[in-house]
Design brief:
With 503 residues, the protein is of the alpha/beta class. It is built from 15 helices and 14 strands. 38% of the residues lie in helices and 17% in strands.
């Protein structure tokens, strides 16, 4: 029996779906309440020029429900789906399924910043400009793949059907993976995309999500992928406590210090890609063993290692020694430009901030995140309402209430390894920004090494670095390079016709 609470929502969804079936470009009227039409769609037609080629496409903005074990709707998950119009046979057309992270953020960042056909107005380095708005993305991967951007529950326009639906259904590592796998099954079935080569791409916490989904889709939905892309990956449940955690961030410190010209002259005059291998080798071969010694490290070794850490981080040697050779990222962001009166950004250390006082051990705010929110928030509001004609009074959650988040039993790195081992067609691409201090590039390399400790899968694993931060695509040069690398990865991960999946 349908409850009195659910019935109006179901009817709203059914009425809306029927209306859009009559005309694909019908505009939604703003809802008199902030309730999501849980099964809805608005379809509009567009075109974009990508790498000199005209690409006509449809854009679908809407919501598809997720259900409980009894078939009752629990929530509506909002999505936008871009499908190239002039491709008749979809069986060989790749489908890219895209997520962002948080875990409380929608897919807005990659949709209008990276791979989608329309991107926000920013300058060439990724800083906000006015007037806010949108422009065509000549680098989009829509020329070679259709893309769906998915907003998990309580992000973007996605919502539970009622406040009494338990958050435990959605808000946790494994709950998130389970319901989103079910949703992907529904989407692929509705859109007739079972034959298509399929790729998952996630950014930040989205990398935890898609790593777990790779195996969940295989085991629970019998859906097999061709590729997984991790953009600025998290730790994926791979243990690195103690000396590892302390040491692995040093190459990121070096990259940031190099950008701000805080390294010694002999290092500063080298290109970044000449400096980093030296620091990586020191980190693995000398710093980790030294930190493992703890208090047993003799004074001469401690002084020698501290001097090297200071040299490679741009920090004063006394700061390194006072922190037992382990400077926290918070202190690094505060200390590096302290003499100039600035802090550096967490997610992108090219950004500078200004604190209330020069003293202290951590910045007052994340300089990069406030800049990104200033640029992205008006752009997505304008885009969804005015270009995709999705009209609603719902608040678009750039950061939604998804806490407490259950982080227990995070085995997503191992799950990804199993998925790759079990499926000979499955390939992995990792993309990192050198100036990302939240999900730093060397930790991403370490995770990839630990995914394949036996070295048996390495011909299907690839890492790439870019000279920007967490959202490396906001820098114009990296937008072009990262999309082109994605394009090549997708096409190279599709087997030749008739090729069997076997070892």
């Amino acid at each position: 029996m349908i409850s009195k609470i659910l019935l109006p929502l179901l009817l709203a969804g059914a009425m809306f779906t029927q209306a859009t079936a009559q005309t694909s470009e019908a505009q939604m009227k703003p809802s008199p309440s902030r309730l999501l039409a849980i099964d809805s769609a608005v379809v509009t037609r567009h075109e974009v020029t990508i790498k000199g080629q005209r690409v006509p496409y449809t854009a679908t903005a809407g919501s598809i429900p997720i259900w409980d074990e009894e078939g009752k709707p629990l929530a509506g998950v909002f999505y936008t789906y871009y499908e190239r119009e002039d491709v008749k046979d979809k069986s060989g057309r790749p489908l890219v399924i895209s997520f962002n992270g948080g875990p409380g953020t929608p897919s807005v960042w990659m949709e209008i910043g990276y791979t989608g056909p329309r991107i926000l107005n920013i300058d060439d380095e990724g800083y906000p400009v006015q007037p806010f708005g949108m422009r065509d993305n000549p680098q989009s991967i829509l020329d070679i793949a259709d893309i769906v951007y998915i907003d998990p529950v309580n992000t973007g326009y996605s919502r539970p059907v009622h406040k009494d639906v338990p958050g435990s259904k959605f808000y946790g590592v494994n709950a998130d993976i389970k319901y989103l796998a079910e949703w992907i099954n529904t989407f692929v079935t509705r859109k007739g995309r079972w034959a298509s080569p399929k790729f998952l791409i996630g950014e930040s916490y989205g990398t935890t999500r898609v790593s777990g989904l790779a195996l969940e889709l295989q085991d629970a939905q019998w859906m097999y992928l061709n590729g997984v892309v991790l953009v600025s990956p998290t730790e994926l449940g791979i243990d690195r406590n103690g000396p590892l955690d302390a040491a692995l961030k040093l190459p990121y410190f070096t990259a940031t210090a190099w950008y701000h010209k805080k390294l010694p002259a002999d290092l500063q005059q080298k290109d970044l890609n000449e400096v980093l291998p030296e620091v990586e080798n020191f980190t693995i071969n000398e710093l980790i063993p030294a930190l493992s010694r703890g208090g047993s490290l003799d004074e001469a070794q401690r002084k020698s290692i501290g001097a090297r850490v200071a040299r490679y981080s741009g920090l004063k040697e006394i700061v390194v020694q006072e922190n037992n050779l382990d400077v926290s990222t918070n202190l690094f962001w505060k200390e590096l430009l302290r003499d100039q009166g600035y802090t550096v950004g967490r997610l992108d250390s090219r950004y500078r901030g200004i604190d209330r006082q020069t003293g202290g051990t951590q910045p007052d705010y994340n300089a990069e995140l406030t800049a990104w929110l200033q640029a992205f928030t008006p752009a997505i509001q304008i885009y969804l309402r005015e270009e995709l004609n999705y009209k609603t009074d719902l608040k678009y959650n750039m950061f939604g209430p998804v806490f407490p988040w259950d982080s227990k039993d995070n085995k997503t790195g191992e799950n990804l390894r199993q998925a790759i081992a079990q499926n000979p067609f499955l390939h992995l691409l990792v993309q990192s920004g050198y100036y990302d201090g939240a999900c730093d590039y060397f930790n991403a390399k370490y995770s990839m090494w630990q995914l394949d400790p036996g070295g048996k899968l390495k011909d299907r694993l690839k890492w790439e670095g870019y000279r920007s931060g967490h959202m490396m695509y906001l820098r114009k040069d990296d937008l072009a390079a990262a999309n082109e690398n994605l394009r090549k990865f997708i096409l190279q991960s599709i087997p030749a016709k008739g090729q069997a999946a076997k070892y």
